[in-house]
Amino acid sequence: MACLLFTVPGKAQQTTLTAIGNVSGAPAEMKQSELKSVLMGEKQRWKNGKRILIALMKTNTALGKTTSSKIYDMSGDELNKYWLSLVFQGKAQAPVFFTSVSDLQNFVAQNPGAIGIVDKPIAGTEVRAVMIDGKSSF
Amino acid sequence: MRINLKTKIWLTICSIVFMFSFFTLFYFPQQQGDLLVNNYENEVQNLANTVALGVKIAINEQNFEGVQTAMEFVKDDPRLQFISMLQSDTIWNAKHDKFEIKQKVFRTFPEKVHLDPTISSNDSLIVKKSNFATGMMSGAILLGFNTKGIEASKAEIKKTSVIVSCIVLLIGILIGFWLARNISVPVLALRDAAHKVGEGDLNQKIKKIHRDEIGELEKAFNKMIDDLETTTNELNEKNEVLSATNSTLNDTLEELKKTHAQLVQSEKMASLGELTAGIAHEIQNPLNFVNNFSEVSIELIDEVLEERGKSAPDRDETLEAELLDDISKNLEKIAHHGKRADGIVKGMLMHSRTSSGVKEPTDINALCDEYLRLSYHGLRAKDKSFNATIKTDFDATVKTVNAMSQDLGRVILNLLTNAFYAVNEKKQQNPAGYEPTVSVSTKNIDGKVEISVSDNGNGIPKKVIDKIFQPFFTTKPTGQGTGLGLSLSYDIITQGHGGELQVDTTEGESTVFIIRIPV
After folding, report:
1. How far apart (Å, rounded) are the C-alpha atoms in residues A65 and A11?
2. Prediction pTM value
């Protein structure tokens, strides 16, 4: 999985990704495996009980494609199918996809427990970068 | 076949109840069941469509909110059996010139359910399919709901229908009894009461009056009985009055009959009185002959005895024989006139007798002649100064006619008496050149005998001509006439002999009475 996370596809523009989270819900740091579990929909709630809300860029954006390939190791369609399966069977809360980073950032800021993937660290009153294995980017 | 009112009411109620029961037990549940199934299928189809739309949006726009909401809604439905997403794959042949589309199950909820993509609806399951197509993937949402809810609803509807039918049946029976009690029973009671009233029992008033149209009928019936009773009482009273009046009338009729008989007898006696003088005159004439011939015969006998007392030379036997012959002739004349007097007396007796009603051959001319003389001499006997010219014209061809001679003679006598009375009245008025004349004639005309009695008296006034044949009508002074003469004469001619009695008069100049009787 670590290999999957940090392998950069040839077509991708960005090489690094950053996880951001709501300051009142998402943890400030976590392990990479824990992040993977959260983003795959395997984990529904944070330890503090807050419901996990995943925010991703749409797969037709460069960041979305990078996220899809780098984190999920899937194409955009495969990612959609994956989440469709989970949602259809009621196994997970589907991510919310955005077309702009700012929208994604606003969503994370406004929803406690939200966690999103962007291309560079962002700092705000309600949003913070989640350290993955002690690093802000991966 | 006669169907009474109660049966008609029950037939109507039963028909309505049975029709309603059929509707509620069979048609209504079936229709409601079909409606439920139809609505249920539409609902399932709409859910499948919603999920398919959510899937389409999720794939195309990466917005899973719709499909997530729809799935949450579907998953929470207790009727859900499964929801499956089918994926359509295009399978080409080896040459890549033909393909077929195969559907396989992509995901199913609940996961443990393994189903055939071609599954269809059955009695316990409703299966609906909604296709979707995106650039990434094409397929369909297959949604399966059980029909337990529908079956439960159908059972509930049937149960409700049975209960409603039972209630309707019960209400129908109650209405039937109520109608029978409020319509049939009072109507039958009215019918029975009407029958008894018809038989005369008026104590049949309806005591319990209903508060509806039948009550109005009962009131009308009671009023009819009251009116009938009043009318009956009035009729009874009037009957009593009529009965009393009838009794009085019967008594009066009896009195009238007696009076009439007495008057008839009086009239008969009056006519007999008219006859008496004539009869006396008629009898006097033969009696004179008898007396004269008797005296002459006594003288002739004395002469015969005187001749027989003479000696032979003086005794004239020829004279003696002539005298005896004269005596013999006188005795024959005495006998003849004695018989004539006897006939007159017998005639008087016959006249006084009540008519036998038997017709016998009667010589009309002789009858007229006899009563003409009796009438004339009767009047002359009363009034020696009275004189009148008597004319007769008897048709020799008039022979005997079957008639009640006493009655017919009484009619002729009555007409002649009136004629002589009329000319005598006029004579006493001393008109210049007046010569009282009474004529009697007979004729044989067309199988009838016509007897005319005419006079040249004062005639009959027009104002009384229509009344002269009415009983008790008379123009004579009180005590001189009963007013029954012409009335009885009319009855004798018309009813007794089938003939006719006519009068033709000219006021101040003459009167003719004409009798016609069939031969």
Report:
1. 9
2. 0.49
